[in-house]
Amino acid sequence: MKILVINAGSSSLKYQLIDMDNEEMLCKGNCERIGIPGGIFTHKTADGRVLDKKVNMLDHTAAFTQVKDALLDPEFGVIKSLDEISAVGHRVVQGGAIFSKSELVTEKVIEDIESLIPLAPLHNKAHVQGIRACRDLFGPELPEAVVFDTSFHATMPEKAYIYSIPYEYYEKYAVRRYGAHGTSHRYVSARCAELMGQDIKDLKIITCHLGNGSSITAVEGGKCIDTSMGLTPLDGFMMGTRSGTLDPSVVTFIMEKEHLTPSEMDQVLNKKSGLLGVSGVSSDDRDVTTARKEGNARAKLAQDILEYQVSKFVGGYMVSLGGCDAIVFTAGVGENQTAHRAEICKYLEFAGVKLDPQKNEEMTLGKEGEISAPDSKIKVFVIPTNEELVIARDTKALVEAL
C-alpha cells in the first residue's frame, strides 16, 4: 500500500509518498510560493534523483498538478500510475474539541475543520484548500484521512486545559489549551519506549520538540497529560519569532503605549518576538549561535533565556508526572544543537539527569539514540521526529477498517 502524505500551508504544500509495506519513503517534495510569483517546486526521490524548477502555481490545485506530474515523470517519478496510490493522509493543525482522533475525510469533516479556522486562521484554512484540491485532482473515490496535531493532547485532564479566566469564555468560544505538534510528540514518545525496550504504558516521558516553533509535552502511559502550547501555538516558551508565555498585562501595556491594534500586537508576539526579538539577529538559532560566538551579548542572552525556559517546563512536568523515566529531544534545534541540550540537562542535574558529553556531541544530523550517562537516573534521548509516518500509519489503519 502506497500512501501520499500532504502538509498544506497557506502558500506551500509539502508531500511524501510512503510505501507502507516496508514503511519506506519513496519520494518527498515541496511546492513553495503558491499563489505568489516566483513559485519553486522541489522533488527528491529516495535513491537521490532531484527535480528542482521554478514554476508559478496559482492555487493548491495547480500545486497538486505539479506533484502528480513529478510522481509519474519518466525520469524522476516513482510510480507508473496514480492507481498505485491507495490513500492520501493530510496533516491538520487544529482539531479543537471536535476531533480527538484521526478521521476519514467526508464533507462533514471538511466543514468541521473549516469551523475551527478561527482557532488556527492560516493553518486550517490552508488544510481545507489542500483537501479540496486533492479531491479535485484524484477524485472523491480515493480515500483521504485527516490527522490532527491536537488530537494527541485530547487526553489532558480539565485541570491542565482550562484557563483561569471566566468559565463562560470556554462555554461560549471554546477558549482552552489545545496544544500542537501532537503527531511529533506521539511518534517520539512511542519510539522512546521502543528504544528503552519497555511498554510505553509503564513510562513517564517528557518530549521536547524544539524548532522554530517549539513545545514540550508530559506523556504518562503513552497519553498526554499536559503540553506547553495553548489555545494557539503562541503559548509556552521562547521560539524563533514567538514570545511564549508572558504576563498578559505586557500585551495591553505595549498596545496602549504603541497605539497598536489587536492584529498589530498579534504580529509583534508571533512574528517579531522570541529569539529574533531578544537577539535582534535572527529567528534561526544557527545564526544566533554564530553571533554569540562572535561576542554578541544579546544573542547570548536570547539563548540563555531559551535554555532556562525549557528547563523550567521540563522540571514542572516532572511534578505533573510525579517523576520521569526519560527526556526526549527532537525537531531541528532539539536534534542538532548539542550546546542547548547540554545546558538544559545541566539545569536538571538536581533530578539525577547526567549527560554523556561524547554521545551528546555525536548525536546530530538525523542520528538517533541515548545521550545520557550510564549512571543517569533519567534517560535522555535524541530521536528525529517522523510525523509523516504517523500520518501514513493512521491513514492505513482507517482505510483498512473500511
Q: How would you characterize this protein structure?
A:
There is one protein chain. By secondary structure, the protein is of the alpha/beta class. The chain has 2 domains: 2-148, Nucleotidyltransferase, domain 5 (2-Layer Sandwich), CATH 3.30.420; 198-387, Nucleotidyltransferase, domain 5, CATH 3.30.420. It contains 15 helices and 14 strands. The strands form 2 sheets. It has an 8-stranded mixed β-sheet, sandwiched between helices. Strands 11-10-9-12-14-13 form a 6-stranded mixed β-sheet, with helices on both faces. The longest helix is centred in the last third of the chain and has 25 residues, at 297-321.
Outline the fold blueprint.
Blueprint: E1 2-8, E2 12-19, E3 24-32, E4 40-45, E5 50-54, H1 60-72, E6 85-92, E7 103-104, H2 107-115, H3 121-138, E8 144-148, H4 158-161, H5 168-173, H6 182-196, E9 204-209, E10 215-220, E11 223-227, H7 248-258, H8 262-271, H9 274-279, H10 285-293, H11 297-321, E12 326-330, H12 331-336, H13 338-347, H14 357-362, E13 369-370, E14 379-382, H15 387-400
Parallel strand pairs: 1-6, 6-8, 9-12, 12-14
Antiparallel strand pairs: 1-2, 2-3, 3-4, 4-5, 7-8, 9-10, 10-11, 13-14
Helix pairs in contact: 1-3, 10-11, 11-13
Entry summary:
Helices cover 40% and strands 19% of the residues. The protein has 402 residues and is an alpha/beta fold.
CATH superfamily of the largest domain: ATPase, nucleotide binding domain
**What would the average pLDDT be, to the nearest integer?**
95
What is the highest CATH level, the class of the largest domain? Alpha Beta
SS elements, strand count: 14
Percent in strands:
15-25%
Q: Helix-strand pattern, N to C? A: EEEEEHEEHHEHHHEEEHHHHHEHHHEEH
Shape: globular
What's the helical proportion of residues? Answer: 40-55%
SS summary, helix count: 15
Major sheet size, sense and barrel closure: 8 strands, mixed
Number of domains: 2
Kindly identify the CATH topology of the largest domain: Nucleotidyltransferase, domain 5
